[in-house]
């Protein structure tokens, strides 16, 4: 079976992302974050510096395998519909947060580098804030009045659930079926119920 042009392009893109990510991790492990340059990462991955910037905005993003998160245009349209609003909010926050993870390999090494380099932790938090801002903007465009308040409260609660899940499983964004998400939802449901 012949591979489609789009399929080949997608596969080549994924391979280039992986090579850049691997090169960034290896070089930072060998030389440190400050000493590693974009040019060195590009050279080790076998691409030009210009190509590097087609894939990652910074060397920090290459180490993280991350980029700007995205949100589908209609992601929040049905947030307040029906009885499963809380679960739906968690799924939306999870999908937007994980959309910024472009490469999902070597999680233990990535975590170790984040712990060793505050700049990487700050860059991770930057992406989390962008995801939050995207969701808040989408909510503001879709809802108003009391619905806007409820939608924002759900968003903030769902963000807390995801953070709780992350504290139990740091690979949660790479493993959509992680039991940590379900456990976190149950802990929050129980806690909220106990408060009422």
TrEMBL record:
Keyword Transcription carried by entry: yes
A Pfam family this chain is assigned to: TetR_N
Claim: Membrane is one of the keywords in the record: no
Residue ranges flagged as DNA-binding region: 37-56
Domain HTH tetR-type: 14-74
Keywords: DNA-binding, Transcription, Transcription regulation
PANTHER family in the record: HTH-TYPE TRANSCRIPTIONAL REGULATOR RUTR, MYCOFACTOCIN BIOSYNTHESIS TRANSCRIPTIONAL REGULATOR MFTR-RELATED
Protein name: TetR/AcrR family transcriptional regulator
Species this chain originates from: Gordonia liuliyuniae
